């Protein structure tokens, strides 16, 4: 057995070797053949075979020519530039001229002499310019790519028709066919020429953009370096003391010329900017003229007492602002210019700030007291000096001189303000008194610090502190005036006669006004915060820090959630809820009130619309959170099984709410009785409904109880209810007269319906009374009507002399009681 196994093993080994050898022998000739085939290719390579495109058959030329002309018409339409391309062609030369003009200005030659805020404004301005150029480049690249694809197709078509022309000439085709081929080929070549010229222009524009982008990128780098250097030198003692700087300055008499030159440069920059942004300037002018026209119109109507229906303090302020229509319109339009002139140059911002001074000085008369107005006028003068100090640019000595004037003027004013016996000590509110006193002392310290640093030559830190504080103080006053003006405009638009005609305004006027003013004040607060950060030159740093925190992602398994996504989730849900409420109010107040819809349909539409908007907003919020909706659907399906068992009652109430909405067995306003609860339905929600009982309480009833339990709806088909009043009179009264009196009382009551008519019946005889019942129908005020009818029956029966029955037991008891009293009196007489 052992030898048999060894023999089998060697036999298999030998057989495997034979098979391998045969395989190698079979593979060898194949490789040899491939080698023999490849070697001749290396020795004598053949030229590539070009497949020549065949021409169009003669019989198909007419149809193909028609198709070609249709295609050419589409290509002609593609040559028409869209709005973005037209805008680029129109604005690009002027924009490039503006950029080159700005790059040659004086302050780019002395960046290291500018303060941090000026450098930040410049960097922001050039970042905006670079972003605009990048957007234009993307638009031009897309346009060039599309035209290039069309040109390739035109080239193929031209080659095809050229071959067709050669084949038709060689084949001696009819002259008509030859002319058709020739005209088609000429049309193709003509459009190709136009395409090539258009592509050439676009490539030229792209080259200009690329060149300018490189220059701007270099300039932004220089500005960033100068900004970093400026931050490091805030406390640097690099300037001479002020008195020595005057002695070292050789051109002191030319300060006026320098100031004039700076103002001229600023005006020139503004001119160039507005010429390049004429659309924004036009929009600003339109807003101003529109506001001015509205305010003048409102002022004329207010003089004739045709504007408002009521008088209060807000409307008195409205009348004051209406009396200055030009100033109010200018101030509000400048506030809106924040969103019109986005990322504008610092010179434009300074011009707008100076324009704010004019209307604010006129409007503070009706807002601040005399003492505050004096302070405001003084701050206005200092603020103008601060603006001039920012305009003078790189003239350090002139900047220091203007800052010296500001501090040397403000210190005595604040000292006078803090003197004993001044009006600051007469402020009644303790909190206001401490706030004003602390602020004044703080400003006094800053002014002295700035004056000292300026005198000894540490100019940057003093300049940043004082210019920033003065700017913030003045602009805070201005923003307060703007807020008052916007509040007045809101009151004007909501409380005037013509708007009061709308049902939604009649019902929700106060709420609309309050919510609108709240959001306006919220926007103004954000604008003020942004202004403060930009004034001190830390806006970009704070924004970058905030963006870094918001964008920081937290990994939860395969899901990454950031703080920004959470904020987006909350904001979208909040907006969805607010939007659903607004739409519900509009539907109920403006639309359903004008339409005749079946009973219950408006409530169903309103509820479904509300929850549809909220549901759609929820899915948007989930998407903003970064959760894949597909995975969320699977997760929701898996959780639905567990929730179905764990939250069975809530799911049951939810489904019952949907049944109530669609089937409408009860509606808002119905009078129902469910269990011990009896009242009017106030609200039908998706989970529960609210019933306002006649006791004045509000009962929350789960929707499942309204669907599964017995519910009595007194007003489902109609709101009419039949009431009955049992009446009993004593024997001996005329039943006919009683019936007549009962019907008279029911018919004369205003709450009883005429149809169906009231009815009275004589039911028969009781133990000691005649039994009557009066039936009548009512629609509203059921309990009150029932009580009044009962009182009317009582008074009528009593006045008619009809006796009411008395129980027999009570009558006999009185007789016995009387007999006992008589017997007692007789006994008293007998006793001596």
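Q: What amino acid sequence fits the structure above?
A:
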């Amino acid at each position: 057995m052992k030898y048999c196994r060894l023999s089998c093993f060697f036999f298999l080994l030998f057989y495997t070797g034979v098979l391998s050898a045969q395989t190698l022998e079979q593979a060898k000739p194949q490789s040899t053949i491939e080698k023999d085939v490849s070697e001749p290719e290396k020795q004598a390579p053949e030229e590539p075979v070009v497949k020549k495109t065949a021409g169009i058959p003669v019989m198909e030329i007419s149809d193909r020519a028609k198709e070609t002309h249709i295609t050419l018409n589409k290509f002609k339409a593609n040559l028409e530039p869209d709005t973005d391309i037209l805008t680029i062609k129109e604005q690009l030369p002027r924009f490039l001229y503006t950029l080159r003009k700005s790059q040659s200005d004086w302050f780019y030659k002395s960046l290291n002499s500018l303060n941090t805020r000026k450098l930040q404004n410049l960097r922001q301005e050039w970042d905006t310019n670079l972003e605009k150029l990048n957007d234009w480049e993307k638009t031009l690249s897309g346009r060039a790519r599309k035209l290039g694809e069309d040109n390739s197709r035109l080239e193929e078509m031209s080659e095809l028709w050229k071959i067709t022309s050669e084949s038709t000439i060689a084949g001696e085709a009819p002259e008509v066919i030859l002319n058709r081929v020739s005209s088609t080929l000429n049309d193709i070549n003509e459009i190709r020429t136009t395409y090539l010229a258009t592509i050439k222009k676009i490539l030229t524009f792209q080259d200009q953009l690329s060149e300018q982008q490189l220059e701007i990128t270099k300039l932004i780098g220089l500005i960033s370096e100068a900004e970093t250097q400026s931050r490091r030198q805030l406390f640097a003692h690099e300037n001479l003391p002020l008195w020595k700087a005057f002695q070292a300055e050789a051109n002191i008499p030319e300060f006026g010329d320098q100031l004039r030159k700076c103002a001229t440069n600023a005006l020139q920059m503004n001119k160039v900017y507005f010429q390049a942004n004429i659309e924004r300037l036009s929009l600003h002018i339109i807003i101003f003229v529109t506001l001015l026209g509205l305010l003048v119109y409102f002022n004329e109507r207010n003089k004739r007492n045709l504007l408002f229906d009521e008088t209060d303090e807000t409307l008195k302020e409205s009348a004051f602002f209406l009396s200055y229509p030009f100033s109010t319109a200018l101030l509000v339009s400048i506030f809106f210019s924040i969103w019109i002139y986005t990322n504008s140059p610092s010179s434009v911002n300074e011009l707008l700030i100076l324009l704010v001074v004019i209307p604010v000085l006129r409007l503070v008369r009706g807002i601040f007291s005399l003492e505050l107005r004096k302070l405001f006028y003084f701050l206005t003068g200092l603020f103008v000096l601060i603006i001039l100090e920012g305009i003078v640019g790189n003239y350090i000595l002139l900047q220091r001189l203007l800052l010296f004037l500001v501090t040397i003027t403000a210190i005595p004013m604040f000292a006078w303000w803090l003197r004993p016996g001044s009006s600051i000590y007469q402020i009644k509110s303790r909190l206001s008194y401490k706030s004003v006193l602390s602020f004044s002392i703080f400003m006094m310290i800053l002014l002295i610090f700035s004056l000292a640093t300026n005198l000894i030559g540490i100019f940057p830190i003093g300049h940043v502190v004082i210019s920033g504080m003065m700017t913030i103080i003045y602009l805070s006053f201005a923003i307060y005036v703007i807020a008052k003006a916007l509040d007045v405009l809101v009151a004007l638009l909501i409380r005037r006669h013509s708007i009061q005609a709308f049902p939604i305004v009649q019902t929700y006027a106060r709420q609309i006004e309050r919510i609108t003013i709240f959001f306006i004040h919220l926007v103004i607060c954000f604008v003020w915060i942004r202004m403060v950060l930009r004034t001190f030159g830390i806006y970009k740093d704070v924004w970058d820090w905030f963006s870094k925190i918001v964008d920081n992602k937290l990994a939860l398994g395969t899901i990454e959630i950031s703080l920004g996504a959470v904020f987006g989730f909350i904001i979208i849900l909040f907006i969805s809820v607010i939007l659903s409420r607004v739409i519900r109010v509009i539907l109920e107040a403006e639309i359903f009130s004008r339409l005749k819809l079946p009973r219950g349909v408006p409530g169903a539409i309103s509820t479904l619309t509300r929850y549809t908007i909220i549901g759609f907003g929820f899915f948007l919020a989930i998407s903003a959170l970064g959760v894949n909706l597909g995975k969320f659907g699977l997760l929701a399906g898996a959780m639905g099984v567990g929730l179905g068992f764990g939250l069975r009652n809530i799911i049951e109430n939810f489904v019952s709410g949907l049944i109530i909405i669609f089937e409408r067995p009860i509606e808002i306003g119905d009078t129902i009785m469910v269990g011990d609860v009896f009242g009017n339905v106030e609200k039908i929600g998706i989970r529960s409904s609210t019933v306002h009982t006649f006791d004045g309480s509000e009962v929350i009833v789960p929707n499942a109880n309204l669907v599964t339990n017995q519910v009595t709806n007194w007003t489902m088909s109609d709101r009419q209810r039949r009431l009955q009043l049992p009446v009993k009179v004593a024997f001996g009264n005329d039943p006919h007269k009683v019936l007549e009196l009962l019907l008279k009382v029911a018919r004369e009551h205003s709450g009883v319906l005429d149809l169906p008519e009231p009815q009275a019946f004589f039911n028969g005889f009781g133990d000691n009374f005649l039994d009557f019942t009066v039936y009548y129908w009512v629609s509203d005020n059921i309990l009150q009507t029932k009580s009044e009818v009962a009182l009317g029956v009582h008074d009528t029966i009593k006045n008619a002399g009809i006796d009411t029955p008395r129980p027999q037991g009570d009558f006999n008891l009185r007789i016995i009681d009387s007999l006992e009293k008589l017997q007692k009196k007789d006994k008293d007489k007998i006793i001596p």
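Q: And what stands out in the fold?
A: The longest helix spans residues 175-232.
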